[in-house]
């Protein structure tokens, strides 16, 4: 039994290649050095690539936000022109959603899913690298618009007919919408492949005994997220293709005079866009559900309820999209139905909040940095959830639409929610990934600065919105009574920036001379802590046999006659030593590095530029790279014989 | 191999499976097969978007030809039937390679690709005819939603034909063996999916009247 299972885990991709064992290019062998980062298929290295790239985009999006705030610090601001302002809020939103939020979740998923389910890699290691490279090139492509005739400037939602009108109609100057549609289609390809990869990995590659209901909550949430990604992205891809055709081939999808319907775009976009909200927040919920039990030293309260409410959110998330469109005049029946569904989805979300509180309640709480961020997440996310429910009240929502109230709401959910969880996750898993402990003092400074800065930035926006300040407007007059709060918001924004700077300093300082991390610094509960830090290339020297939920905890602890927690004697026959020894591991077969994900991905920006500049000649090299890469990929075996 | 009985065959396949570790995943389906299913489910939403657009724009034509003006239902029925038959030949091709009958496998696989090509040829003819009758991408919402939907489907069929011909070429060079039959099965899943999508398109686009 064990041997066959190891076989699958060793060679996860197409293990049956009998005679197809030739490769066009010499197979890359390097596992260290710069080049190895372009050919690696190791899920842990790919996770680091995702994380590092997304952090760079996070800093860029932050700078864009600060420029916006400088412009709005006082009335009649002159830091930016209206056109520059449009570009900056468009790119800030697009970057945060597609180049920061989703990739950071994929970074955590990539690193943790195989480790938490006891696998040696993901199901499709090369497809995994492909997904990262598409994200990297897609991001660079979007930003190249700044230098090639116009960065995207139609908002992160890109409403039609603003974006779909032909360039010479003059709605939006430049090639911004073309870069935006093609860039997003490209990024969508990467997201769908990583979604497929996660679904198959989680369903197919769990270690013996790792039943679905023993999986860590983070893995569960990533499974829901992966399904949402796979189903949501194609809806927006279809919409983006229509926009591109309208703009470049004079189709009439969104031309009202020809019977086209601009609202169709909004429906398709939000059919993607609302599940997208859950794609962004569920990984955060997963991270927090991992951190809280460890630092409260209690099992997660109501594991199965948390799992099922996560699934319920996944389903209900498909039935609420039109609450983004209440102001468009959908008619009373549709509005009532979507209002009701929006109230409903608050229930599973609220259930989770009580579960987290129940987890912390009565525990012996250690207020380390990860725990602070997790608790901050609960508080901030609850505030965001409460303002979210107010959007279900249609008359109120109609009033709030397109004001700063909405900006306040979704930043409480996505920054107060997702970003807090991500920073908690950084602090929590950093020792496992890099083998160094992040500095606790600097971590706490990061947290408090971020909490204060965040609330200073976004809480006043509720009031500004209710007082009528519109979003996406580059300036405001002096007599509106918005001056003081806007200045406060801008100062808050810079405090957030300071907190991120402290985090980056922390990273640099601890990388240079940080405390070396032990295997299990937090006395944690899940499998990734049962292996050395940093995680060895092969993950597990011996594939774990899972006997319980929080298996690693039960390897370490047991109960005595009075039900008190005691350390398990290390020589119990039932369990091998709790923490694995580092072994040589050279006889463990792992997926081999490959050039082809890079080759295929190099073809994509070529085709993308061909589409934007309508340059048919570029299609030929693009298709050649793509086809050569795909064919060579197909005949290359996943794992080399040794 | 061609003389084996069915239970023998099942046994052979089973041992093949355990030798190559196929059935040892948690779900019993191999990673590639499960991945293909997930991918195809994603494609449903993709086509769903364009089909919804077509349905929404039905009867909203401001100028230019209407569906009744251009559709040639008998012609499209014939090419649709040919595409459907290609699913049958695909099944026969898979069954052939699974029992090691490479000669029949090549015939059926080539027939599948050929039927697909006939369908695409019919589509090219249909597009040209429609264009001649005044229906273009930009003429009206019918032209936009019709051409983009059926064109994207045609692109999927074309990709499928290239895929099938690649497998056929590999088989002609004796590079595709019984144990590689899952590659054929995966290609088949994709091919059947593209067929099923066409059944939906043919029904809601061509057959349901305005």
Please name the defining characteristics of this protein.
A: 642 residues, mainly alpha, Cytochrome C Oxidase, Chain A, two-stranded antiparallel sheet, 2 strands, 62% helix, B: 210 residues, elongated, disordered N terminus
Architecture overview:
The complex is a heterodimer of chains A (642) and B (210). Chain A is an all-alpha fold and 642 residues long. Chain A has a domain of 228 residues: Cytochrome C Oxidase, Chain A (Up-down Bundle), CATH 1.20.210. The N terminus of chain A is likely disordered. Chain A contains 18 helices and two strands. The longest helix of chain B is centred in the C-terminal third of the chain and has 32 residues. Chain B has one domain: Cytochrome c oxidase, subunit III, four-helix bundle (Four Helix Bundle (Hemerythrin (Met), subunit A)). In chain B, helix 6 packs antiparallel against helix 7. Chain B has 210 residues and is an all-alpha fold. Chain B is built from seven helices and no strands. The interface between A and B is large, with 53 and 47 residues.
Global outline of chain B = elongated
Number of strands of chain A: 2
> What average pLDDT do the residues of chain B reach?
89
Which class do the helix and strand fractions of chain A yield? mainly alpha
How many DSSP H or I helices of chain B?
7
Oligomeric state: heterodimer
Main sheet strand line-up of chain A? 1-2
Q: What is the chain-wise order of helices and strands of chain A?
A: HHHHHHHHHHHHHHHHEEHH
Please provide the ordered H/E string of secondary-structure elements of chain B.
HHHHHHH
Largest beta-sheet characterization of chain A:
2 strands, antiparallel
Mean pLDDT of chain A: 91
Which fold does the CATH topology of chain B refer to?
Four Helix Bundle (Hemerythrin (Met), subunit A)
> What CATH architecture label of the domain at 281-469 and 478-516 in chain A applies?
Up-down Bundle
Number of domains of chain B: 1
Query: What overall form of chain A do the CA principal axes indicate?
Result: globular
């Amino acid at each position: 039994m064990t041997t066959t299972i190891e076989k699958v885990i060793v060679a996860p991709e197409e293990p049956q290649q009998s005679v197809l064992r030739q490769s066009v290019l010499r197979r890359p062998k390097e596992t260290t050095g710069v080049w190895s980062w372009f050919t690696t298929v190791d899920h842990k290295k790919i996770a680091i690539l995702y994380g590092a790239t997304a952090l760079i985009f996070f800093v860029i999006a932050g700078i864009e936000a600060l420029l916006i705030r400088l412009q709005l610090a006082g009335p009649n601001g002159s830091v930016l022109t209206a056109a520059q302002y449009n570009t900056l809020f468009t790119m800030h939103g697009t970057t945060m959603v597609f180049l920061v939020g989703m990739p950071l979740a994929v970074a955590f998923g990539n690193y943790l899913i195989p480790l938490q389910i006891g696998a040696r890699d993901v199901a499709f290691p090369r497809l995994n690298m492909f997904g990262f490279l598409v994200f990297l090139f897609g991001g660079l492509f979007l930003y190249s618009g700044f230098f090639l005739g116009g960065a995207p400037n139609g908002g992160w939602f890109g409403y039609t007919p603003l974006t779909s009108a032909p360039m010479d109609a003059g709605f939006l100057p430049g090639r911004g919408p073309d870069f935006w549609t093609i860039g997003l289609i490209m990024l969508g390809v990467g997201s769908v492949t990583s979604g497929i990869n996660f679904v198959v990995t989680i369903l197919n590659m769990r270690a013996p005994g790792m039943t679905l209901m023993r999986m860590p909550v983070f893995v569960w949430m990533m499974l829901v997220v992966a399904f949402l990604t796979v189903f949501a992205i194609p809806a927006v891809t279809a919409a983006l293709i229509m926009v591109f055709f309208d703009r470049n081939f004079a189709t009439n999808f969104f031309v009202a005079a020809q019977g086209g319907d601009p609202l169709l775009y909004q429906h398709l976009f939000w059919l993607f866009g609302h599940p997208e909200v859950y794609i962004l927040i569920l990984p955060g919920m997963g991270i927090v559900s991992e951190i809280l039990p460890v630092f409260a030293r209690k099992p997660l309260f109501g594991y199965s309820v948390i799992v099922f409410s996560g699934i319920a959110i996944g389903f209900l998330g498909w039935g609420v999209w039109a609450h983004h469109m209440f102001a468009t005049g959908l008619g009373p029946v549709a509005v009532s139905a979507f209002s009701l569904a929006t109230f409903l989805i608050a229930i599973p979300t609220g259930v989770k909040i009580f579960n987290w509180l129940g987890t912390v309640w009565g525990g012996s709480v250690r207020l380390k940095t990860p725990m602070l961020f997790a608790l901050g997440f609960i508080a901030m996310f609850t505030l965001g959830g409460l303002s979210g429910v107010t959007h279900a009240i249609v008359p109120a929502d109609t009033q709030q639409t397109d004001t700063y109230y909405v900006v306040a709401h979704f930043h409480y959910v996505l920054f107060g929610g997702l970003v807090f969880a991500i920073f908690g996750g950084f602090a929590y898993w950093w020792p496992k990934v890099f083998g160094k402990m992040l500095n606790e003092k600097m971590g706490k400074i990061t947290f408090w600065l971020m909490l204060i800065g965040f609330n200073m930035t976004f809480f006043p926006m509720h009031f500004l919105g209710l007082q009528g300040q519109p979003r996406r407007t580059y300036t405001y007059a002096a007599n509106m009574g918005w001056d003081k709060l806007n200045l406060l918001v801008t100062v808050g924004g810079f405090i957030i920036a300071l907190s991120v700077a402290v985090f980056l300093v922390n990273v640099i300082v601890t990388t240079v001379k940080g405390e070396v991390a032990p295997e299990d610094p937090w006395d944690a509960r899940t499998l990734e802590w049962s292996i050395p830090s940093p995680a060895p290339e092969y993950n597990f020297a011996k594939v774990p046999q899972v006997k319980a939920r929080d298996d690693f905890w039960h390897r370490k602890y047991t109960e005595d006659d009075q039900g008190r927690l005691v350390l398990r004697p290390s020589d119990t026959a039932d369990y091998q030593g709790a923490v694995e020894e580092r072994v040589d591991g050279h006889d463990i077969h792992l997926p081999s590095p490959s050039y082809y994900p890079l080759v295929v991905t190099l073809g994509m920006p070529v085709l993308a530029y061909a589409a934007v500049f309508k340059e048919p000649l570029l299609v030929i090299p693009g298709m050649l790279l793509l086809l050569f890469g795909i064919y060579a990929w197909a005949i290359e075996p996943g794992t080399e014989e040794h | 191999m061609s003389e084996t009985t069915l239970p023998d065959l099942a046994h052979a396949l089973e041992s093949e499976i355990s030798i190559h570790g196929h059935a040892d995943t948690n779900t019993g389906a191999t990673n590639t097969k499960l991945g293909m299913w997930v991918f195809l489910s994603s494609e449903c939403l993709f086509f769903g978007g364009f089909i919804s657009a077509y349905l929404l724009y039905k009867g909203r034509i401001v100028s230019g030809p209407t569906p009744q003006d251009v559709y040639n239902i008998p012609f499209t029925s014939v090419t649709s039937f040919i595409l459907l038959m290609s699913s049958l030949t695909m099944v026969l091709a898979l069954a052939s390679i699974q029992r090691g009958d490479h000669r029949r496998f090549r015939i059926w696989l080539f027939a599948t690709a050929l039927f697909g090509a006939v369908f695409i040829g019919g589509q090219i003819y249909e597009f040209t005819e429609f264009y001649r009758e005044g229906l273009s991408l930009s003429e009206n919402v019918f032209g936009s939603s019709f051409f983009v939907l059926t064109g994207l489907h045609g692109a999927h069929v074309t990709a499928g034909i290239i895929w099938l011909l690649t497998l056929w070429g590999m088989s002609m060079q004796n590079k595709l063996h019984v144990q590689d039959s899952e590659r054929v099965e995966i290609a088949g899943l994709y091919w059947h999916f593209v067929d099923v999508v066409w059944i939906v398109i043919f029904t809601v686009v061509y057959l349901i009247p305005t």
